[in-house]
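User: We ran a pulldown and think these components assemble together. Before we commit to crystallization trials, I'd like a predicted model of the whole complex to look at. Sequences follow.
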Amino acid sequence: MSEKFFIKNYCHIKNQTVSVNGKAIFKDVPIALGTEDFSTFIKNAYKFLKTDYSKFFKMDNLSKLAFLAADVLLKSEYLNEKENNIALVFSNNASSLDTDRKHQAAIENDAEYFPSPVVFVYTLPNICLGEISIKHRLYSENSFFIFDRFNAEHLQLYANSLLRNKKAEKVLCGWVDFDENNYEAFLYLVGSEGEIEHNTEEINRLYNKL
Amino acid sequence: MSELKEELKAKIIEQLNLEDVSVADIADDDALFGDGLGLDSIDALELIVMLDKDYGIRLSDPKEGKKIFESVQVMADYIQEHRTK
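Assistant: Here's a predicted model for the assembly, 295 residues in total across the polymer chains.
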């Protein structure tokens, strides 16, 4: 019989709200309807959640979104200060398109050709995995996949394989998508402890919960 | 010169996204890297682009930046002497 793994905690960030295990822990109320703005929301969420990391404000929007969702889950794990074996398996649809567009606009401007190195370094979606790994000292497997839509089957198979083959003690997986002002993060931590079985039905149920 | 130093501080804060840092927080002789403002290698590249874009100074060797970006004071002295715009 194959070994079972469990979802310990999960986090959603969407619609100006940060939720953990289905409960909203931070909700940003815009000044007026239609004025929702990701930059303001994520900055307010960062401050409310007491996320102490000065490099946060240098990140692009995808990395800010991924970093904050991961931080919410990992800060309650009492991680080792030197090294942790938590793999990262992330996915999305838009890749790093939001930042790619900014870089493209800069390199298309022949008259003022000054592409920003700070923008350029984020023109890959997996950079956000590096940001999370540096903060939480994750010396572990990490992968970022691009799919048309949320793919619970892939996350389940890949994470379980890493755990079963002892490539990681836990896996932080999910979906982190950002394009223009549309954003959504759903991350969960899977390992040998937890109450929710790590199968596609449960992953989809949690993903669609909010 | 004093105006240039204030301008540089404002540009550094804005272009390097230094949250919760104001112009008044940066002394002329504060180290920009290491224990000072804590800038990193990507920030150094951004400063090289800023020198080119705003002051017409093109560094042929990025290693030159190590000395030029020591502090706002050193940067201002260098810009004053080499600027083409």
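The CA atoms of residues 28 and 72 of chain B lie 5 Å apart. That may be worth checking against your pulldown data before setting up trials.

User: Thanks, that helps.
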